[in-house]
Amino acid sequence: MGIINVTPDSFSDGGEFSKTTNSFEVDIPKVLHRVESYLKEGASIVDIGGESTRPGARRVAADIELNRTIPVIEALKKNLDVPLSIDTSSPIVMAEAISAGVDIINDVRALSAPGSIGVALESNAAVCLMHMMGEPSTMQKTPRYSNVVSEVFEFLKGRIAACKRVGDIENRILIDPGFGFGKTVNHNYQILKFLSTFQDLGFPLLVGISRKSMVGTVVNRPERERVYGTIAATVLAISNGASVIRTHDVAATMDAIRVHCAYKTG
């Protein structure tokens, strides 16, 4: 899953797809060029986000998200053949993105906003339910768990149950333990070490580790220099059951996936 953040403030690629440096306006040709590169490198899905959820980020209004993402979705659907995911927690944005042609709702708040489960049920879109402690603006201040693996597991189990209570969505669910979302570095590595535990929930596992501080803290490198560390974490995630890898660095990630597959089948 290749990442396209059409935001001015995402932690690694904020402003990358802007026409100018003075204000944020999405450069559609630049996005198309990047997605074309992702597809050549082996990406199977492209994830589009119009609101940063980095630590400390504030919510943005739905109309801002829509202005950033819908033109991108429409351009990608018109020009390229690739499944699309919308990274949002807003039911309004979910609905508009589905109408524009997205295939997956990727929600860091696990469809907790009122009406979001209903939007998902009324569509044929797959849904990724992610764990986050608190909100992006405060989630990294004092994250505490008695047992991070079991608590994240129980949260995801509860969100799956909430979706099932509303309607038949079971065959469209993915789960994400939420690396970096209300977790210390040690919490993140505990989840990575015991990632296979989440397979007991019975749904495909999506993992987003790319360039995150759990890697940067260990290798002591800035975001754009964390590819090697990210790939090491990615291989561990695949070995422990990850089905989908969300990444900024598609070519390197695909190399790691191919080598891992060759190892497994050798």
Question: Layout of SSEs?
Answer:
Elements: E1 2-5, H1 28-41, E2 46-49, H2 62-79, E3 84-87, H3 91-100, E4 104-107, H4 116-121, E5 126-130, H5 148-166, E6 173-176, H6 185-193, E7 206-208, H7 213-219, H8 227-239, E8 244-246, H9 250-265
Parallel strand pairs: 1-2, 2-3, 3-4, 4-5, 5-6, 7-8
Helix pairs in contact: 1-2, 2-3, 6-7, 8-9
Walkthrough of the structure:
The chain has 266 residues and is of the alpha/beta class. The protein has one domain: TIM Barrel, CATH 3.20.20. 42% of the residues lie in helices and 12% in strands. The strands form two sheets. The chain has a six-stranded parallel beta sheet with strand order 1-2-3-4-5-6, with helices on one face. Helix 5 links the parallel strand 5 and strand 6. Helix 1 packs across helix 2, helix 2 packs parallel to helix 3 and helix 6 packs across helix 7. The model has no long low-confidence stretch (mean pLDDT 95).
Please tag this protein with its features.
single chain; TIM Barrel; six-stranded parallel sheet; two-stranded parallel sheet; alpha/beta; 266 residues; 9 helices
Q: In short, what is this structure?
A:
This protein has 266 residues and is of the alpha/beta class. The protein has nine helices and eight strands. It starts with a strand and ends with a helix.
Top CATH class: Alpha Beta
Question: Strand order across the biggest sheet?
Answer: 1-2-3-4-5-6
Q: What structural category arises from helix and sheet content?
A: alpha/beta
Give me the CATH fold name: TIM Barrel
Report the order of strands and helices.
EHEHEHEHEHEHEHHEH
Going by CATH, the architecture would be: Alpha-Beta Barrel
Number of helices: 9
Distance between the termini: 25 Å
Shape: globular
Low-confidence stretches: none
Quaternary structure classification: single chain
The percentage of residues in β strands lies in 5-15%
Helix content: 40-55%
Mean pLDDT across residues: 95
How many domains is the backbone divided into? 1
Question: What is the CA-atom radius of gyration, in angstroms?
Answer: 17 Å
